[in-house]
Specification:
Strand order of the largest sheet: 1-2-3-6-5-4
Largest sheet: 6 strands, antiparallel, barrel
Low-confidence stretches: 14-28, 175-202
Number of strands: 8
Strand content: 35-45%
Order of helices and strands: HEEEEEEHEHE
Shape: globular
Distance between the termini: 12 Å
Structural class: mainly beta
Number of domains: 1
Mean pLDDT: 76
Radius of gyration: 17 Å
């Protein structure tokens, strides 16, 4: 599979899951997103899905993977703001990541260094920790190197990857329609949204 195929597969409706066959993981800590570098994002307006590709080799939370793929389903807003950069290639380092839940929609807001902001409104978010065999033994690239050298040291949307683990967060209104699986219909305050991440082995 590839990051592109993960994005497309997440576009489908959530399926009820047999908890007996799921190895549950600890909830993801959004503070770990501050250790990621944003590589690329794409938006499919027709299908209302968006994907974000992260370099994760410096992230302590990615014990086995080397890349993060964040996917949003039923997207109603996607905003990216950044300063004008003179350099031809920039490492966008995440410094904050917050999620709030209005009930109908999840709002993901991230800030990056150099100055940039990302905001997504969607009904569901998924995060895939993945590993690319071709990155084995390869370090994070020097972004001042040639474009070919940079690309050879990073995952792109068509790179074959293996999913290490997956996390999914649903808005409260969408979570209420799932009868079985690791989700429950709750009235958790937005400030407690981190506790509502559920994760399982693929």
């Amino acid at each position: 599979m590839t990051p592109e195929s993960l994005m497309n597969s997440f576009a489908g409706e959530p399926q009820a899951r047999d908890e007996g066959g799921i190895a549950m993981r600890s909830p993801i800590d959004l503070e770990r997103f501050t250790e990621f570098q944003l590589l690329d994002f794409r938006m499919n307006c027709r299908r209302q899905i968006a994907g974000i590709l992260f370099e994760g080799r410096m992230a302590l939370d990615l014990d086995e993977g080397d890349t993060g793929v964040l996917v949003a389903r039923e997207v109603v807003e996607f905003q990216w703001e950044s300063e004008v950069r003179v350099s031809s290639s920039t490492a966008w380092n995440s410094i904050t990541a917050e999620i709030s839940d209005s009930g109908d929609l999840l709002a993901l807001e991230m800030e990056f260094m150099p100055v940039a902001k990302l905001r997504i409104l969607a009904r569901a978010l998924g995060f895939f920790e993945v590993k690319a065999d071709r990155l084995s033994g390869i370090g994070i690239p020097d972004y001042a190197a040639s474009e070919n050298e940079i690309k050879s040291a990073l995952v792109d949307w068509e790179t074959p990857v293996a999913v290490v683990r997956k996390y999914e967060l649903l808005s409260r209104s969408l979570a209420c329609v799932l009868i079985s699986g690791p989700f429950r219909c709750e009235t958790t305050p937005a400030a407690m949204i981190r506790a509502r991440w559920s994760a399982w082995s693929p």
